[in-house]
Amino acid sequence: MVRSLSETELKPVTWEYAVQAKGLRVKAGRHLAVTGLDLSIGVGVHGLLGPNGAGKTTLMRALATVLSPESGTLELLGRPVQERGADLRGVRRGTGYLPQEFGYYPKFTVREFVEYVAWLKEMPALAVPVAAERAIARVGLADRADRKLKELSGGMLRRAGVAQAIVNTPDLLLLDEPTVGLDPEQRLAFRELLRDLGADTCVLVSTHLVEDVVASCTDVVVVHTGRVVWQGTPGQLAERGGTGDPGDSAAERGYSALVRQARREAGA
Amino acid sequence: MTGVLLYLRARRAPAALVGAAAAVWGLWAIWAGMAVPGEVPDQMGMAATGFAAIAAGTTLAGPDTHLDHTAARPWPPRRALHLAVAAAVILGLLLSVAGTAHDYGDAATVTRNCAGALGLITLGTATLGGARAWFYLAPFITVPPFLPLSRTSIDSTAGQILSWPLQPTTSTTATITAAVLFAAGTVAYIHRGPLLTVRH
């Protein structure tokens, strides 16, 4: 049933940027949510910040190959993804994705859920149990691996979602709101996991929590109305804010200043 | 547990099988219990076929179409195999009562109706999503029992198209209608898969 790999797929692909987008436009339903976005990111942990409706989730879906771009160019893991005959299979094998909400598999245990996604990612059957075990342990659910998903709390469910996203040891990891529902202790542990993953993986984390970005990201991308309006380090983000900008920390004030400026420019 | 077993469980295949069997054997048992001689009426036959197809339709999309969509595993051949197995199971269930005093009609009628019903379900899955897959098929189950239709009363082409499940197998129009529905639904589903529900 499973088709053998073509020569193109077997050829090793090298890349500098795990994600390279130019003039990317993506629709969410009938609404154009990503409106000409340019982005290049490589290994490291990248925080994706932006107000509601900025196009963060649509961008994540496009990078996860769930949505197809309307126009522009998009290269993931060194492979162009819009062309006819694009190596989507290779991209998907190397990508992990945690959607903002994931569909419910209530009768699956955590282990079964993670193993199922490993199977979807075409991991070798013999490697699946060990990989699933490792991914579950990394998110701190080892003692609940045989619990059904319907028995888990929101935070544990979120961690199970992260486990399925990292089971294939992806080169590109896309996490949409991964810290929703996590308690403070779990959030701290998750930040550490992110830093660990970012050592050899391109991790893009979409979040509203500026403090998570500052604590765990090497790079920050701010989007507004479907475009990147700023990209820099957390330290540079902190320098952008002034005393008049709202926020509890320098980084939050910097983020507020950027969003205000983007709103003014969009209005103009 | 192997991936295929997990796939079947993710698609709720065991529950769907129970549902399809309950529809087919349940309606047959009701008719048999009423002790009316002869085969099950066409309307009831279509209802059994339709409910079995709806049960099968629940397996055509997973709980999370987005996660499924990011699978490296190529879907089109898997979808084709899935449909072939679903069709075989429904046909097998409907023909399992063949030869009894109250069967669902001859094999040709059962096959035609099964193909048409699956076509409508797959078309619904591809264009409306897994949750609304039943939408196009529902009228063919719910309306016929209330219409004074009989196999001989409809001569117009439009009438034969609209009442294709109730036509005799000699009706080429009805057979073509079912074949077109099956082909359109199968191609749409295999090629596109279940409609992606975009959540905001």
Automatic annotation (TrEMBL), chain A:
Query: ATP-binding: present as a keyword of the record?
Result: yes
Q: Which GO terms describe its molecular function?
A: ATP binding
- Domain (ABC transporter): residue spans on this chain: 19-250
* Keywords, comma-separated and alphabetical: ATP-binding, Nucleotide-binding, Transport
Matching InterPro entries: AAA+_ATPase, ABC_transporter-like_ATP-bd, ABC_transporter-like_CS, P-loop_NTPase
Any Pfam family from its record, for instance, is ABC_tran
- Entry's family note: Belongs to the ABC transporter superfamily.
> Can you say what this protein is called?
ABC transporter ATP-binding protein
Give the taxonomic lineage as stored in the record: Bacteria, Bacillati, Actinomycetota, Actinomycetes, Micromonosporales
From TrEMBL, chain B:
Query: Does this UniProt record's set of keywords contain Transmembrane helix?
Result: yes
Q: Where are the transmembrane segments?
A: 12-32, 81-102, 114-137, 172-190
Keyword set, alphabetical order: Membrane, Transmembrane, Transmembrane helix
Q: Which domain of life is it from?
A: Bacteria
Q: Does the keyword Transmembrane helix apply?
A: yes
Protein name in the entry = Uncharacterized protein
Look up and give the organism this protein is from: Actinoplanes couchii
The record lists the lineage as: Bacteria, Bacillati, Actinomycetota, Actinomycetes, Micromonosporales
